[in-house]
């Protein structure tokens, strides 16, 4: 592996910068001790650069070159600031060249290769990071490992293909699963692919409908818990939404679910949330690991308040996953109890809502009243 000393022999002489007590100072906007820890950790998320006075070269913190002595290091907020101070860019990490966010590179590579396993070593080559750093960065930003993310994308593709009427085997392979057993193990459907393709055939779902201040509510539940809570303009429309989601399931009226309707309306009016701390204990949510984290985060938004998609992503420790958060909100099957209506656009606009933007406006107005 090339180090800074070796590179300095192949480049022009280093600038005359004497090592002094001020030579390892940081920019006023950079905490030197924190920055040094990021350099030692080769943190790919760090946005500053560091320079070495003995070689006259500056690098990104994630550079793979040998680490210098701390006394010889200076920190700069940008590559331009380091160049202005007389330092030259490293040939290994090219810190003066703009680069894409490594997380975006990793996600895009996984998304382009759903039909085969993508190993950590391969992702490391794509982002020029070590496999360990790839795993750590991805889990910190996305909340799941690269493997779990790929499985979630495959599961989404499989659900879409099955809903469009594709044959089970064709859907499994077109979604990127290498075998039917892999699909049955990792599709996150809440049922087997065959049963999902059959519209929930074999599932027994109890349901009830009731009028509410926000339109008609329909609640559906399996033996595992609540699986459907939708809003509609009429009772017929509400019941049709459940049949459309589970067209082959056995549906039966269950008056005992009326308390779930009451709880849903109470959650908008400021009553205590009936949702358990861990999704799935009383709700049959059937989502990916990341979706479950988003839905749980939605339930932590205080009554009467809103969050933007980007704020929610940051709260989840995944600031670059704004679009994934939005998709998880759109996939929510349980209105009100999992309050996706409390998420708005960055400019405060209501954006989309599965059950209508005007209804979202009514819900937020009722919570703020």
What topology emerges from the helices and strands here?
Blueprint lengths: L3 H6 L22 H10 L7 E4 L4 E3 L13 E4 L2 H6 L3 E2 L12 H11 L7 H8 L3 H12 L3 H18 L4 H7 L5 H7 L6 H5 L6 E9 L2 E8 L2 E8 L2 H11 L4 E4 L4 H12 L19 H11 L7 E2 H7 L6 H9 L12 E2 L12 H12 L1
Parallel strand pairs: 2-4, 5-8, 9-10
Antiparallel strand pairs: 1-2, 1-3, 5-6, 6-7
Account of the protein in words:
It is a single chain. The protein has 369 residues and is α/β, with parallel strands linked by helices. The chain folds into 3 domains: 4-89, DNA Methylphosphotriester Repair Domain; 100-197, Orthogonal Bundle (Arc Repressor Mutant, subunit A); 204-368, Winged helix-like DNA-binding domain superfamily/Winged helix DNA-binding domain (Arc Repressor Mutant, subunit A, Orthogonal Bundle). Helices cover 41% and strands 12% of the residues. It contains 16 helices and 10 strands. The strands form 3 sheets. It has a 4-stranded mixed β-sheet. It is elongated and about 80 Å long. Residues 1-25, 170-199 and 272-281 have low confidence and may be disordered.
């Amino acid at each position: 592996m090339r180090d800074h000393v070796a590179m300095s022999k192949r480049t022009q002489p280093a600038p005359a910068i004497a090592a002094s007590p001020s030579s390892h100072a940081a920019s006023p906007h950079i905490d030197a001790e924190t920055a040094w820890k990021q350099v030692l950790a080769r943190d790919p998320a760090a946005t500053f650069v560091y320079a070495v006075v003995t070689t006259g070269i500056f690098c990104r913190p994630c550079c793979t070159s040998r680490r210098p002595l701390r006394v010889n290091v200076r920190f700069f907020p940008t590559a331009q600031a380091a160049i202005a101070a007389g330092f030259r860019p490293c040939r290994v990490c090219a810190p003066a060249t703009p680069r894409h966010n490594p997380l975006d590179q990793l996600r895009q590579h996984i998304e382009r290769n759903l039909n085969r396993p993508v190993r950590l070593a391969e992702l490391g080559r794509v982002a020029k990071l070590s496999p360990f750093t790839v795993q750590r960065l991805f889990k910190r930003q996305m909340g799941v490992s690269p493997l779990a993310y790929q499985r979630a994308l495959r599961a989404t593709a499989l659900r879409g293909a099955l809903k469009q009427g594709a044959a089970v085997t064709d859907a499994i392979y077109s979604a990127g699963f290498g075998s039917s057993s892999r699909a049955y193990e990792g599709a996150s459907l809440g049922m087997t692919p065959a049963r999902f393709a059959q519209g929930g055939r074999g599932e027994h779902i109890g349901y009830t409908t009731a009028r509410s201040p926000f339109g008609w509510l329909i609640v559906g539940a399996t033996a595992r818990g609540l699986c459907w809570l939708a809003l509609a303009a009429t009772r017929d429309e509400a019941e049709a939404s459940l049949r459309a989601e589970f067209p082959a399931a056995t549906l039966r009226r269950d008056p005992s679910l009326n308390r779930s309707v009451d709880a849903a309306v109470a959650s908008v009016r400021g009553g205590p949330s009936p949702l358990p701390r861990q999704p799935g204990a009383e709700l049959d949510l059937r989502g990916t690991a990341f979706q479950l984290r988003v839905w749980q985060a939605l339930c932590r938004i205080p009554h009467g308040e809103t969050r933007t998609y980007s704020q929610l992503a940051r709260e989840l420790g995944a600031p670059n996953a704004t679009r994934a958060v939005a998709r998880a909100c759109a996939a929510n099957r349980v209105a009100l109890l999992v309050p996706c209506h409390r998420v708005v656009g960055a400019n405060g606009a209501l954006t989309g809502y599965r059950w209508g933007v005007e209804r979202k406006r009514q819900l937020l107005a009722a919570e703020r009243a």
